[in-house]
Amino acid sequence: MLSRAAYLVADSGSGGTSVGLHLARFCLEDGGRVLWAAPEMPDPARFSQILGSLSLAASTRFHAMNLIGRMDLVTKALEGAARDLPGVRLVVLDDWAPSTGRIPAADVSAVVALLSALQEHATVLLIAKPGTDMEAEDGVRVRSQPDLEAAGCTVWRLEKINQGQIRLSSGGTEVQLSPTDDGFEGA
């Protein structure tokens, strides 16, 4: 699913953080290291469901940091950690943008700089909520899409559809999933 950079635009409550945790699990099981930055740690119950069965050795390769303050300082810290720690394969910025309104230009610039710095080192996953666009057919707008696509991000949409199912889509690719206790299953 992931290119070297992905922007997951996830409806509130659709499982964006769970998708990120699932990808982190795959990375850790494969021997990689994960850097996770978010304003808050994921829900402890969901975190445990998805990552709880990892070996102690694998779980020590999961590094979390608080995503607060100036984005340029946060991204510089992530860049340094990704270069200094061995085997970093995935960097996740969960809920990196304000939940509503425009994403501040300085934040987008800092993230674009991070993408550029890590393009040869690790996959970067950005997770954020969509914006509102009353002129769009579905009423949703992918915020900062042109800048992030120009920086090499593949944009993925994660949306609730019906009866607990979600749809993950990008371009012409679409997958329907159902959340389970330990992740997702194909619908």
Give structural notes:
This protein has 6 helices and 11 strands. With 187 residues, it is an alpha/beta fold. It has a single domain (5-158), classed as Rossmann fold (3-Layer(aba) Sandwich). It has a 9-stranded mixed β-sheet, sandwiched between helices. Strands 6-7 form a two-stranded antiparallel ribbon. The longest helix has 14 residues, at 16-29. It is globular. The relative contact order is 0.22.
Beta percentage is 25-35%
Global structural class: alpha/beta
CATH topology label: Rossmann fold
How does CATH name the architecture? 3-Layer(aba) Sandwich
Overall outline: globular
Helix content: 25-40%
Individual helix count: 6
Distance between the termini: 17 Å
The first-level CATH class is given as: Alpha Beta
CATH superfamily: P-loop containing nucleotide triphosphate hydrolases
Secondary structure blueprint with pairings:
Layout: E1 5-10, H1 16-29, E2 33-38, H2 44-51, H3 56-59, E3 62-66, H4 71-84, E4 88-94, H5 105-118, E5 123-128, E6 131-132, E7 140-141, H6 145-150, E8 154-160, E9 166-170, E10 173-180, E11 183-186
Parallel strand pairs: 1-5, 1-8, 2-3, 2-4, 4-5
Antiparallel strand pairs: 6-7, 8-9, 9-10, 10-11
Helix pairs in contact: 1-2, 4-5
List keywords for this structure.
187 residues; alpha/beta; Rossmann fold; nine-stranded mixed sheet; two-stranded antiparallel sheet; 11 strands; 32% helix
